[in-house]
Amino acid sequence: MITKEQVLHALSFVEDPDFKKDLVTLNMIKDVEITPNRISFTVELTTPACPMKDHIEHACRNAIAHFVDKEIGVSINMTSRVMSKPDKQLDNIKNIILVASGKGGVGKSTVAANLALALQLKGAKTGLLDADIYGPSLPMMFGLEGARPKASKTSDGKTKIEPIEKFGIKLLSIGFFTDPNQAIPWRGPMVSAAIKQLFNDADWGDLDYLVVDLPPGTGDVHITIAQNYPVAGAVIVTTPQNVALADAQKGIAMFMMDTIDIPLLGIVENMAYFTPAELPENKYYIFGKDGGKHLAEKFNAPFLGELPLIKSISDAGDNGYPIVTDEDEPISKEFLIIAERVAQQLSLQHAN
Amino acid sequence: MITKEQVLHALSFVEDPDFKKDLVTLNMIKDVEITPNRISFTVELTTPACPMKDHIEHACRNAIAHFVDKEIGVSINMTSRVMSKPDKQLDNIKNIILVASGKGGVGKSTVAANLALALQLKGAKTGLLDADIYGPSLPMMFGLEGARPKASKTSDGKTKIEPIEKFGIKLLSIGFFTDPNQAIPWRGPMVSAAIKQLFNDADWGDLDYLVVDLPPGTGDVHITIAQNYPVAGAVIVTTPQNVALADAQKGIAMFMMDTIDIPLLGIVENMAYFTPAELPENKYYIFGKDGGKHLAEKFNAPFLGELPLIKSISDAGDNGYPIVTDEDEPISKEFLIIAERVAQQLSLQHAN
Ligand SMILES: Nc1ncnc2c1ncn2[C@@H]1O[C@H](COP(=O)(O)OP(=O)(O)OP(=O)(O)O)[C@@H](O)[C@H]1O
Ligand SMILES: Nc1ncnc2c1ncn2[C@@H]1O[C@H](COP(=O)(O)OP(=O)(O)OP(=O)(O)O)[C@@H](O)[C@H]1O
Ligand SMILES: [Mg+2]
Ligand SMILES: [Mg+2]
């Protein structure tokens, strides 16, 4: 009869390509069970959005066939337990991910919304916090204009705001509490107080990832969040032109400041080019070419992906659903890949 | 011999189409001189960027020919003296024009820079103040990275910052005082103090128009300027999609607040569509259609113009010259028309 030791020995030849160690050393193999004609075990990855999931499962099957038994049945349960640095956790939120830029209108909210949903589609428990006080985009992007979160009492008697759930993720925005026809002429301290409420007074429950959509600039919202919450990392969105890169660079410089020190998870280049339906071979680089790639090189940061200008992205945002909810849209795949890369970078951060 | 009374009588039949009164009543006719074969006079308009300039000159010639003498030579000196509401003037700055939006990245800085230059090209004394502390675009857009304004002593011993002159306009930006590689993690009070310095401690000299490029949002910069300076009016820039219109509307709502009360000069729709060179008949409405027009209708505000997505606008901004400085560019004409409409709206504001 095959022993557990044989199975673990075989799996010790399977390396996690990100962590560059084998699955047994990484303590990723759980619940090994052996019957005369079947080996079952669980592989516990560090994120359900692991881009290497299929690759790892395949390698496990090969290792069993090669080192143990070619003929035996193999059942692998691919699961995940999202990691979190112990000192970097807020209540039950394992990873706070900031989506930022410095520059306005580059697609921060679009990337944040689709990233949050893509992580959820991959199986992660996800929340999205719209931290843009003056121009909250979340209510319109999720078709939640006029929605009002409920308040509930916790067991210890505190009043908590209940995030609104849509498309399987938890959502909060200052826009849920204000009149869309009114301006929010607030100075910094009011802004900071509002941001703290959205973090502290909300019942986020258990979350693997809380994606935070930041406003443009490097002001009160950014400082308040960086100083008060354990942020796991930041995704920078930029468009390719120099004026956008200059501001994105300021955004990165802020995260790299000693007093702030938030890891850079990578850079997304948005509005990279436009391709008319009638000329599918053509790419019009309206805002210039490869600016985001060059920025990633300059800061030695992962390049997470490139998104062209596509009318359906803008239309989806205007019509209450982030585009990634439509799996027939070719661009949805790109958002899923970006989400995998972000999750991967976070796992790597925690491992180091 | 023809008398001055005859000339004024003739010109009293010429109406200013904006003010709906005749030029004599409006006190626009100056320096009438009559020689046996020539009548000379000056028409003093309310702005050198008057869109009716040619029309008015033509109407004056017709009136003289019709009511005075068909054959006599007529010399008309078209000048202007920019108006300003007495209670709305800061030192020697006749009109402070804000360019704003609420939404980020819609082209505020692009419109502000080209508007300021277009007013100058029309003959007005113009300044441009970049009030975007976190993402100042002016230095790059004018090829002035690394430029440092000089300080000078005024006659009464105060130290004043000298705005930098380029393309005939006076320029100031917080970017002239900061390192482009550094973030500006400033909370609201520091931002307000910096803005006040750019207004108060700068030697702007005599200006017909000071165009102020605002950051996105409705925060400290906006409140500080609205509360401390006599603003003549605001130009709102928006792109056509709903998420941009929602924020632009918040921006407008702010200016309309009782405590702020800044006149709306009109709305510019930017990035309205894209036309590939190979398909000159096609318009791709990537961000939706006519959103800016609808916003103008909703607020009963003038629609100042529509700007398509054009690579050369973005390239010009990245390369240190606002596009309107290139008169061979077809889009430059559109910026000149927008500037005329803005100047016209200001004159109308003052007249009412
Ligand atoms: N790749 C794209 N193709 C087409 N439209 C896009 C794309 N990315 C974003 N948009 C649209 O551009 C507009 C600006 O995007 P978004 O609101 O996400 O930017 P932002 O950086 O969050 O802006 P702000 O600085 O105002 O918060 C939105 O209408 C959005 O739908
Ligand atoms: N009509 C246009 N066609 C092509 N590019 C444009 C157009 N208008 C603006 N751009 C480019 O789009 C980018 C954003 O414009 P701009 O910086 O003027 O926006 P903004 O509203 O000032 O942004 P922010 O909110 O960050 O201050 C710039 O690179 C600019 O050159
Ligand atoms: Mg946004
Ligand atoms: Mg700007």
UniProtKB/TrEMBL annotation, chains A, B:
GO terms for molecular function: 4 iron, 4 sulfur cluster binding; ATP binding; ATP hydrolysis activity; ATP-dependent FeS chaperone activity; metal ion binding. Keywords: ATP-binding, Hydrolase, Iron, Iron-sulfur, Metal-binding, Nucleotide-binding. One of its GO terms (biological process) is iron-sulfur cluster assembly. CDD domains: Mrp_NBP35 (cd02037). Residues 4-65 form the MIP18 family-like domain. InterPro entries: FSCA_dom_sf, MIP18-like, Mrp-like_CS, Mrp/NBP35_ATP-bd, NUBPL-like, P-loop_NTPase, YlxH/NBP35. ATP binds at residues 102-109. Pfam families: FeS_assembly_P, ParA. It comes from the Bacteria. Binds and transfers iron-sulfur (Fe-S) clusters to target apoproteins. Can hydrolyze ATP. Homodimer. Belongs to the Mrp/NBP35 ATP-binding proteins family. PANTHER family: IRON-SULFUR PROTEIN NUBPL. This is Iron-sulfur cluster carrier protein.
